[in-house]
Specification:
By secondary structure, the chain is of the alpha/beta class. Among the domains are: 11-188, 3-Layer(aba) Sandwich (Rossmann fold); 310-410, Rossmann fold. The protein contains 20 helices and 15 strands. The chain has an 8-stranded mixed beta sheet with strand order 3-2-1-4-5-6-7-8. It is elongated.
Length: 503
């Protein structure tokens, strides 16, 4: 089958909520005639009126001419019965996330639209294969998953079910590009690309909160410091804990209760208590007018602790960063590049980059610090002290981190701290997705940067780090917690052989 062209076909949008209205705006701006339908009486007409208001706002901002706005609105038709959609060449549903309802809708559509009409679902989590079950022509159903707000977010996940024809997926891919989007191919598995790979961003912080290892404000500050626009706690508060918890539970159940995706009791309690985040006024944070906003301590510069022997241990980006900052402080030091750990040795006391083991496990006069992905000065950085260390080394370790330009945030002595274990698990999840041919490495990177605004893609982080360090950290986590959650992806193990790191 040749790839059908969809660039000029009438587009039917079913469901005129936020997502449906956004898809309608993008499609009419690309030149399509748009048919709007909603099961709720009057909703389609209301959606067209709101679209007109959006165009007026764009005219007022000088981003659209009045004539163009008028012409586009004329191409939008609110219909009151699906039987009026016979001319549609593409039907996109953006209705409730319910398998039975979606399946019924597409079965109804098959009796209305032409055999050439492509059927697309904007589902974010339901199997495209399952939705297609029962259709006379399941091969023409494809996932076309947009991200909110649709006019601004570039990513579209083009999701193929077991019976989706390759030519149909290619047609949606090309159409998405013509709409100014960046499409990525995905196979229909639970969570597709973004909602699957993103789970550890929330899960690792929730796990640490469950252990009372840190405060939400510290977790948010440390992850913002490495480039995330929002920390996990404030993002969950924004999304709504009911919604975030539901997606996590859906992915968990769809993966047959794989422990890697197990929901958090911390979040379940928030949901049970009605503390859903911004929309209820309380979540991890209190958004009521009278509430005090928590914060971390501001960065305070400190002198480097006095030491006779200062040695930078190891090599690579982090070791180079430490050496560069010691030079800036005019501290005399040596570097032992073949050391089996990365960090700084001060007269025998060790300040070590986390490798997944706790400071207590590593020794007596030991402190561990988190992965500093950013070179920005005064950025928040988690660290922990060995339970066997004396008070003098605890004070010196924090002072050393402050002198090196980090806003040191002490947390409980937990394996992998926060940023390192979060990034490692994001990489691990993406590696499994590639191993299972859900997406390509390039597709995973594009999806996470464009779909959820990550500062880098998981495979870009892997290139900055290395598979050996990631595997070592994950194995340490697995040994500490003794469960399936931190099992290493076979894809990552294979990379070590391919790059000569294992024989």
């Amino acid at each position: 089958m040749t790839t059908p062209s969809l660039t000029a076909v009438p587009v039917l949008i079913i469901g005129t909520g936020i997502m449906g209205a956004g898809i309608a705006q993008v499609s009419v701006q690309a030149g399509h005639t748009v048919l709007l339908y909603d099961a709720r009486e009057g909703a389609a007409t209301e959606a067209k009126a709101k679209l007109g208001q959006t165009f007026t706002m764009l005219v007022d901002k000088g981003k659209l001419s009045a004539d163009k706005a008028s012409a586009m609105l004329d191409k939008v038709q609110a219909i009151h019965d699906l039987s009026e959609a016979k001319t549609a060449g593409l039907a996109i549903e953006a209705i409730v996330e319910n398998l039975a309802v979606k399946r019924s809708l597409f079965q109804q559509l098959e009796g209305i639209v032409s055999p050439e009409c492509v059927l697309a679902t904007n589902t974010s989590s339901i199997s495209v294969t399952a939705i297609a079950n029962g259709l006379k022509h399941p091969e023409r159903l494809v996932g076309m998953h947009f991200f909110n707000p649709v006019p601004l977010m570039k990513l579209v996940e083009v999701v193929s079910g077991l019976q989706t024809q390759k030519a149909i997926a290619e047609a949606i891919f090309e159409l998405s590009q013509s709409w100014g989007k960046t499409p990525v191919y995905a196979r229909s598995t639970p969570g597709f690309i973004v909602n699957r790979i993103a789970r550890p961003f929330y899960a690792e912080t929730l796990a640490l909160l469950h252990e009372h290892a840190l405060r939400p404000v510290v977790a948010d500050a440390c992850l913002r410091a490495v480039g995330f626009r929002m920390g996990p706690c404030e993002l969950m508060d924004l999304i709504g804990h009911d919604t975030n918890f539901s997606v996590t539970r859906s992915v968990y159940e769809a993966n047959f209760y794989d422990k890697r995706y197990v929901p958090s009791l911390v979040q379940a309690e928030l949901v049970d208590g009605g503390l859903l985040g911004r929309k209820t006024g309380q979540g991890f944070y209190d958004y009521r007018e009278t509430a005090l906003k928590p914060s971390i301590a501001e960065y305070v510069a400190a002198p480097m602790p006095t030491a006779q022997d200062v040695t930078v241990m190891g090599q690579g980006r982090v070791a180079d960063l430490l050496a560069r900052r010691l030079k800036d402080l005019q501290i005399n030091f040596t570097q032992l590049e073949d050391a089996d750990w990365i960090g700084i040795d001060l007269d025998g006391a060790q300040l070590r980059l986390t490798d997944g083991r706790t400071a207590t496990q590593l020794g007596k006069q030991v402190a561990v610090f988190d992965l500093p992905l950013s070179d920005a000065p005064a950025s928040a950085l988690a660290w922990a002290i060995s339970g066997r260390a004396n008070r003098e080394w605890q004070d010196k370790a924090q002072q050393c981190l402050q002198a090196l330009g980090f806003n040191a945030q002490q947390v409980a002595d937990t394996p992998g701290l926060l940023v390192a274990r979060t990034i490692a698990m994001l990489i691990n999840e993406a590696a499994d997705a590639v191993q299972q041919q859900v997406c390509t490495p390039e597709g995973a990177d594009a999806a996470m940067k464009l779909g959820v605004n990550y500062p880098a893609g998981p495979f870009e982080w892997l290139a900055q780090w290395d598979s050996q360090s990631v595997v070592r950290l994950l194995n340490a986590l697995d040994q500490h917690y003794r469960g399936e959650r931190y099992r290493v992806s076979p894809w990552l193990v294979q990379q070590q052989y391919l790059h000569g790191l294992m024989e």
